[in-house]
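Anyone able to model this chain together with guanosine-5'-triphosphate?
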Amino acid sequence: MEILRIAIAGSVGAGKTSLIRSISEIEVVDTDKRSTDEIALLKAKTTVALDFGLFTIVPNQLLYLYGTPGQPRFDFMWDILIRQVQACIVLVDAHRPEHFHYGSQILNFVNQRVQIPVLIGLTHMDCPNAGKPEDIAIALGLHNATKKPPVIVVNPTQKASITEAFKVLISEMMKPSIL
Ligand SMILES: Nc1nc2c(ncn2[C@@H]2O[C@H](COP(=O)(O)OP(=O)(O)OP(=O)(O)O)[C@@H](O)[C@H]2O)c(=O)[nH]1
Ligand SMILES: [Mg+2]
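re: yes, here you go
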């Protein structure tokens, strides 16, 4: 049995828990708690520990999905996790430009620590005021990145959209790494 471990990162409300809940074949342990402080203005509940889910790509090949809390105060968990995974999906909420900077910080954080395939999933693209993918890519600092990760639209509430994202990520994982 091959197990591929994938981290799902992104700002508060980007859709990390939704993605794992939509796709997981096991019940996701509920670590969402009532939000306090400024997060309560954005959403009623927020993740305070790792979300974990599991998805079978083909028999004998499993994805283990680890969703990180979106609040910066839990960044220490992220530091431990990133060294244990084979790839990372960074979800960026397209209709909250104030969160784009956090997305670029995540990308820098990953690139400084590990050399793994990264996929950027733009969420909330169906919402009014969602930015254009090319503008968001610029805001994330990808225009002058040496190695640009794929940027795709993903709806974490829709299974078909998530499996499409997994296909792109797995094809990235299969590319020979250029050293
Ligand atoms: N319309 C729309 N709603 C979305 C999309 N992605 C996520 N949502 C909704 O956004 C809300 C927040 O999603 P969560 O999955 O809780 O976000 P999270 O990234 O886990 O947030 P934290 O745990 O607080 O960091 C939920 O109500 C989702 O249904 C999307 O692409 N489109
Ligand atoms: Mg969550």
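The pocket of guanosine-5'-triphosphate (ligand 1) is lined by residues 10, 12-18, 43, 46-47, 69-70, 123-124, 126-127, 155-157 (CB under 6 Å).
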